[in-house]
Design a protein that fits this description.
- The chain has strands spanning about 5, 10-15, 20-25, 35-40, 45-50, 60, 70-75, 80-85, 90-100, 115, 120-125.
- It is mainly β.
Length: about 130
Amino acid sequence: QVQLVESGGGLVQAGGSLRLSCAASGRTFSRNPMGWFRQAPGTERNFVAAINWSGSIIKYADSVKGRFTISRDNAKNTVYLQMNSLKPEDTANYYCAAVNAPWRGSSWSLNDMDYWGQGTLVTVSS
């Protein structure tokens, strides 16, 4: 059974940092583009960041550029999201996602994702 399991969420003060992890199991994702979306209460799920299989192509939402860093460790079948300078508006459930098709830097949409994690909650207090 293929699973993506997020961890690392929690409560942090504004200006603080968190590191999210997404561990894949059931098959190797070393060749799959992977990324993160987030969804605040009462809002739609939005793209945050994506990384291709080698890490040579990375894309961020404008709202997180310069503050968030996506990375991956293919040996561990894991993708990470380092979040610095957190703001209250970053509060959301963060979801890991993966696609099967090759990716060359185009925009990600919800309908394109083949795999989803269950989410991890990040709460940033002011």
